[in-house]
Every structure is written in C-alpha cells, then in structure tokens.
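User: I'm preparing a small set of examples for a lab meeting where we compare how different chains pack in three dimensions. I only have the primary sequence for this one, and I'd like the structure in token form so I can line it up with the others. Please keep the answer compact; I'll paste it straight into my notes.
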Amino acid sequence: MIIVPLKEGENIEKALKKFKRKYEKTGVVKELRRRQEFRKPSVVKREQRLHAVYVQKMHRSED
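Assistant: Understood. Below is the structure token output for the 63-residue chain.
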C-alpha cells in the first residue's frame, strides 16, 4: 500500500503529484502491461540485442 504523508495545510495537487510519482516507481502499470501478452523468450532476447546495437550506434555517433 502506498502511503503519502501530508503536511499541515499542504495543497491536494502536490499530494496527488507525490502519490503518482510513488505509484510510477513501484512499476505496477508496467508489469501489468507486460503480463497481458506472452512473448517468447527468444523474441525478448532478440529485441534486447537490437536495442543494445541501437544504443551503441547512438553513443558512437555522439563522439
């Protein structure tokens, strides 16, 4: 359970922003979306490899 301590007289908008930040850090939504469809491990590894190649190219182009 996420608990957001509020200070006396704190704005509700600020409290909501804190709650959203904490909720996002837990990764609940990301995990839920990941579990909605099954992806074969080979497909996941291939995507990771392609992403790594892409990141390497980006780093080389910066230099």
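A couple of notes for your slides: The two ends are 45 Å apart (CA to CA). The chain has a mean pLDDT of 92.

User: Perfect, thanks.
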